[in-house]
Known about the structure:
about 160 residues; 2 domains; alpha/beta; hypothetical protein tt1805; single chain
Amino acid sequence: MGNNTTAEKRELIYWFLDSQRxxxxxxxxxxxxLLISDALLERVTPVSQVPLQGNLLLVAARGTYTHPFLLRLxxxxxxxxxxxxxxxxxxxxxxIKLYLSINxxxxxxxxxxxxxxxxxxxxxxxxxxxxxxxLMTMIDQALDHRDKRAFDALVSRLRKxxx
Length: 163
């Protein structure tokens, strides 16, 4: 997504909050905290793919196949919004990637573009495969960190995806 101004980042977060129903209770709180602090927002970089390493804030809308909420900061992974808020406020960090996982099916109901059934099936298949790979990677990371709670949640999502 490149170098975005603080205003563009703010607009993206407002759009996400206005157009999506968030999957994680309280996740809105952390996004609103970013919105009111230019100092924090300047260190946020929106991304269109989940990076496998480095600092990451992932917030998902309902109906997506990503984890509802994840903060990866300075080598720690946190799935609890309140604990994540404490880390963002208390830890020193240079930058953080922001991945907002949108519910494309919901969003595209309102698109004006012509829908092509074959392309939709192919895109859904690709999306499912990419999501599966991402979940497998996150499961491996949860195993490496011996995080049973994250592992169970991710395996559950993988099972739902495979059904």
